[in-house]
């Protein structure tokens, strides 16, 4: 349905998956820590089928191509997902600092605007991509109208640059779907995120999905939970319709 393209990002050429009809509202999809791969492309295609142009960039382009960094085995097999994450993945995640991701975000949105219609855009992110999505909204108020964050880790920290602090700079509506079995986003942190959303006056949905693990939306891993994945798609579709296609919901 879509195709791989190249984008001139802050520190070199980055691959990205682009899908959907030209001129439709734009959606930026921030990948999880596993990276750009067929599973992400399938998810992007599904979002595009709702009437959007979707761009999913290879955010780890500084570390190698998407193919070079992709898993070699089947992450649905017992222990395979855990083994993959022990192979340097978190080093790549930590190296993608807020300064680096902010510089890249300008390139991602510029590329998206070249294919999408005029007007606001949506951003959705998974795992560490949820952090990127929230930061993007704070970086581009008035442009980002919708943020989806699903099984996001580390959205609330004690650091001065904690992702949740970007909410106050944003003008977006937020939908979060947290996993209840997720050490990277505890019940207390979910509550703190809710307080930040309330304080900023941003419309939002901040839910915990019961029985879900971190990574529940990814059908190519052992963390996948079909019910939670479908719930996230339903909530995301409704969010994008409200914010990017309001004429269709009137």
By secondary-structure content and strand pairing, the structural class works out as: alpha/beta
Q: Low-confidence parts, pLDDT < 50 over ≥5 residues? A: none
What distance separates the N and C termini? 29 Å
Secondary-structure element order, N to C: EEEHEHHHHEHEEHEHH
Annotation field: number of helices? 9
Helix content estimate:
25-40%
- The CATH topology corresponds to Rossmann fold
How many DSSP E strands? Answer: 8
Q: Bin the strand percentage.
A: 15-25%
Please give the radius of gyration in angstroms: 17 Å
Largest sheet: 8 strands, mixed
CATH superfamily: Alpha/Beta hydrolase fold, catalytic domain
Strand order of the largest sheet: 1-2-4-3-5-6-7-8
How confident overall, as mean pLDDT? 96
Quick one: CATH class? Alpha Beta
Number of domains: 1
The dominant shape is globular
What is the CATH architecture term? Answer: 3-Layer(aba) Sandwich
Helix/strand layout:
Blueprint: E1 3-9, E2 12-19, E3 26-30, H1 38-48, E4 53-57, H2 66-69, H3 80-85, H4 89-95, H5 98-113, E5 121-126, H6 128-139, E6 144-150, E7 173-181, H7 187-200, E8 204-213, H8 226-244, H9 246-249
Question: What structural keywords apply?
Answer:
250 residues; alpha/beta; Rossmann fold; eight-stranded mixed β-sheet
Task: Give structural notes.
By secondary structure, this protein is of the alpha/beta class. It has one domain (3-245): Rossmann fold, CATH 3.40.50.1820. The chain is built from nine helices and eight strands. The chain has helices at 38-48, 66-69, 80-85, 89-95, 98-113, 128-139, 187-200, 226-244, 246-249, and strands spanning 3-9, 12-19, 26-30, 53-57, 121-126, 144-150, 173-181, 204-213. α1 links the parallel β3 (26-30) and β4 (53-57).
């Amino acid at each position: 349905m879509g195709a791989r393209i190249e984008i001139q990002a802050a520190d070199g050429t980055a691959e990205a998956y682009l899908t959907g009809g030209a001129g439709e509202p734009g959606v930026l999809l921030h990948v999880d820590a596993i990276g750009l791969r067929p599973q992400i492309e399938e998810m992007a295609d599904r979002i595009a089928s709702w009437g959007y142009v979707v761009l999913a960039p290879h955010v780890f382009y500084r570390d190698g191509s998407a193919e070079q960094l992709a898993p070699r085995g089947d992450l649905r097999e017992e222990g395979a997902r855990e083994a993959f994450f022990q192979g340097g993945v978190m080093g790549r995640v930590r190296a993608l600092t807020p300064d680096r991701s902010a510089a890249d975000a300008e390139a991602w949105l510029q590329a998206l605007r070249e294919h999408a219609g005029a007007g606001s855009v949506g951003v959705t992110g998974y795992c560490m991509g949820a952090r990127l999505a929230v930061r993007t909204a704070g970086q581009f108020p008035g442009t980002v109208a919708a943020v989806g964050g699903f099984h996001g880790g580390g959205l609330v920290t004690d650091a001065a640059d904690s992702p949740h602090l970007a909410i106050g700079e944003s003008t977006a509506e937020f939908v979060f779907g947290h996993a209840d079995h997720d050490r990277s986003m505890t019940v207390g942190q979910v509550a703190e995120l809710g307080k930040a959303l309330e304080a900023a006056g941003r419309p939002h949905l901040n839910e915990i999905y019961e029985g879900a693990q971190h990574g529940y939306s990814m059908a190519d891993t052992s963390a996948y939970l079909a019910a939670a994945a479908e719930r996230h798609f339903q909530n995301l579709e409704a969010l994008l319709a409200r914010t990017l296609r309001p004429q269709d919901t009137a």
